[in-house]
Amino acid sequence: MLFRLLSATALLVLASPLTAQEASPDDAAERVQRIAELDDAGPMLNAVIAYDAGAAAKAAAVSPDSLLAGRTVLVKDNIETREWPTTAGSLALADNRTGRDAPLIANLRAAGGVVLGKTNLSEWANIRDDNSTSGWSAVGGLTRNPFAIDRNSCGSSSGSGAAVAAGFAWGAIGTETNGSITCPASINGVVGFKPSVGLVSRTHVVPISSTQDTAGPMTRSVADAAMLLSAMAGEDAADRATVGIDRRADYHTGLADFSLQGVRIGVMRNQIGDRDDVRAVFETALADLEKAGAVLVDIEFEPNEQMYADSFAVLMFELREEMGKYLASLPGETMPRSLADLIAFNEANADTEMRWFDQDLFEQAEATTDRDAYETARANAVRIAGEETLDMLLADNDVAFLVAPTRGPSWTSDLVNGDNYNGSIGFGSPAAIAGYPHLTVPMGAVEGLPVGISFFGARFDDFAVLKVGQAYENARSAALPVPSFERWTPASAQPD
């Protein structure tokens, strides 16, 4: 109840976003206080499922010479950490205490990061049913957007995006199969980076797809995202996709040396969407890029629709297989061991698990067993998305990067009717399906609601994509909105 007793002046101080400079070195005690006042009480964002109230002492014990030097990081609750259960938002995994760190978390700790807690997410990373509401899980409830608490925080890394926007941690880790880092980052007004598949280990991460899954950083600046990626990345013998990758020693050194002068960037005109307000913000971002020296090349392109159908077939087949492998690895005799077990659990606990939406995707995945059809679909999807879309666009237009708006502004959360986002905006699916890098950076606001700009590059061109993102961030002229921690109203939601 502490939040409700604060004065109006104190509320304004708490609601102000923390800058990257203020967060480095990090103040873990202040982060914990903010979670208590804004997540546990007050607007109750429901972004954080569990956190370490003693994080400040742990941060103080970290060597200041380490990469992260005690900076606090919140972790999406489908990634294993030794302190807390890993639930993927489902009551079926409420007791999933493995006592082990995912390799990416072990890397994070070795780099001097402090695991502050676990963030809420769209249950099962939004793969359970087509009619879900992003940001809701049976374990954590509905995550609220800090910029307008009646608005959606997007999924599935909803809690990670909202937590960073609210100043609950220096950074957060999300996961993406198709849009689950970049959408919540854009909607919550933070930086989100989906790295090339293979840079970061997926071991001990609740899976959807071995083809498309990856974890990635969510922070307040591109430089911080690059630093967090440096801490997370690494080879893992248990994840074949990471083996033999020619990754950099780090992804943050030298970012500031990049110049946009003469850099050719392809503008995905057909993916700007049908909203004039989003178009206007995007045109301002393009003008900033041009002013900084970039050469913009208009591209008219419509993706091959077969890519989406084939990718969906891949997700359905891999969900059943990969989930079964993960569940089989869990200690304890009472844990579910297969996707069929999860379906049965949801049916037996329908009043808590399926009050708002069903499990049609789970059921479809359980019935998707044709391996030959899967292999054909996977080859088609990856080829179309990679060689025939991203690689072709970059080469044929002689551009180094592609840009488009990430998403439109946040929609009103509606548990009864589900999500209502505008699907005409954005170009994220090819990068997700092919496993290429995708960076979103805040570019302004529509009626006080954040919107982001997306940068795409070639596979494993992650460092270059981060460089162009920081160069845009340095050139950005638009005012960015400030979280209100209130319901959206036209009068209260204007940028400063």
Describe the structure.
- It is a single chain.
- With 496 residues, this protein is of the alpha/beta class.
- It has a single domain, classed as Amidase signature (AS) domain (Amidase signature (AS) enzymes, Alpha-Beta Complex), CATH 3.90.1300.10.
- It has helices at residues 8-15, 28-38, 55-60, 103-110, 158-165, 182-187, 222-232, 276-291, 306-328, 339-348, 350-353, 360-366, 371-396, 428-434, 462-475, and strands at residues 48-51, 72-76, 114-119, 136-137, 141-142, 171-176, 191-194, 214-219, 264-268, 295-299, 401-405, 438-446, 449-456.
- The strands form 2 sheets. The chain has an 11-stranded mixed sheet.
- Helix 8 links the parallel strand 9 and strand 10 (295-299).
- Helix 7 (222-232) packs antiparallel against helix 15 (462-475), helix 9 (306-328) crosses helix 12 and helix 10 (339-348) runs antiparallel to helix 12.
- It is globular.
TL;DR?
Helices cover 33% and strands 14% of the residues.
Keywords:
13 strands; Amidase signature (AS) enzymes; 11-stranded mixed sheet; disordered N terminus; about 500 residues; two-stranded antiparallel sheet; about 15% strand
Count of distinct structural domains: 1
Q: CATH homologous superfamily?
A: Amidase signature (AS) domain
Number of helices: 15
Q: What is the CATH top level name? A: Alpha Beta
Structural class: alpha/beta
Order of strands across the main sheet:
1-3-2-6-8-7-12-13-11-9-10
Calculate the mean pLDDT score and round it.
94
What is the percent of helical residues?
25-40%
List SSEs in N-to-C order: HHEHEHEEEHEHEEHEHEHHHHHEHEEH
Beta strand %: 5-15%
Work out the radius of gyration: 21 Å
